[in-house]
Write a structure and sequence with these properties.
8-stranded mixed barrel; globular; 229 residues; single chain
Length: 229
């Protein structure tokens, strides 16, 4: 009986230590089990994104692109095509934010299961390359916590979104804390912009931390580039 009790107490102590360690890691960085899942998923999405980048337009699309005389119009054409065909949870591009040292594959959609894969694009906002406000959401404490340090971003910081058809550069203009129901933050304004959203404060969903960034540069890639460019 003593041996059984000793074994049981040892198991309980180890379990307690593991729970404390898990809580400590989550507080200091992020929840480790969901982070492992998200890392595996991000690696797979990276492969999917590279395959998307290598995909050639159909013959019909190539003829349509040949009639477009500017790279910006080609970028818009390919953005509309991707938006029509992409499904929830699919990779669409990559976001990079040097200030907080992140680079993540962005997926289409912001439902719970999709955001476990990485930052998610709001389906009811345009893709980069189309007029309006592009909006992306991300977790702060789970699933690699891509936007954990979003509150460290400052005016003038750079954000890049690389899509299969173009690389977009944005400069942060301001940040704001709003209620979760404040959908006006993703409305279209008088210029093309990017909006990032995440729960606020840490470990709470009572508010949203919002970053507003203005588009400052577009570099066409792949099929969007004019011949000889």
């Amino acid at each position: 009986m003593r041996r059984v009790l000793r074994t049981l107490s040892t198991i309980l102590i180890v379990a307690g230590c593991l729970l404390i360690a898990d809580a400590g890691i989550t507080y200091a960085w992020q929840e480790p089990l969901s982070a492992l899942y998200a890392r595996i998923t991000q690696d797979r999405l990276g492969s999917d994104l590279r395959a998307l980048e290598r995909l050639r337009p159909s013959e019909l699309q190539q003829r349509a692109l040949a009639r477009l005389q500017t790279e910006r119009r080609r970028v818009a054409f390919l953005a509309r095509s991707l938006r029509r065909n992409v499904k929830s949870g699919n990779a669409i591009g990559r976001i990079g934010i040097p200030r907080i040292g992140i680079s993540f594959v962005v997926v289409q959609g912001t439902d719970g299961s999709t955001l476990r894969k990485g930052p998610g694009h709001y389906r009811d906002t345009p893709l980069p390359g189309l007029p309006g406000t592009v909006a992306i959401a991300g977790h702060r404490t789970t699933y690699l916590a891509p936007f954990r340090k979003i509150n460290d971003l400052r005016k003038g910081d750079q954000i890049t979104i690389e899509m299969p058809y173009a690389r977009f550069t944005y400069r942060i203009e301001k940040t704001k804390i709003v209620k979760p129901t404040e959908y006006s933050v993703i409305r279209a304004v008088g210029h093309d912009r990017l909006v990032l959203t995440a729960c606020h404060p840490l470990y709470s969903a009572s508010q949203r931390y919002v970053v507003f960034a203005r588009e400052v540069d577009v570099q066409a890639l792949g099929s969007a580039r004019l011949r000889g460019a």
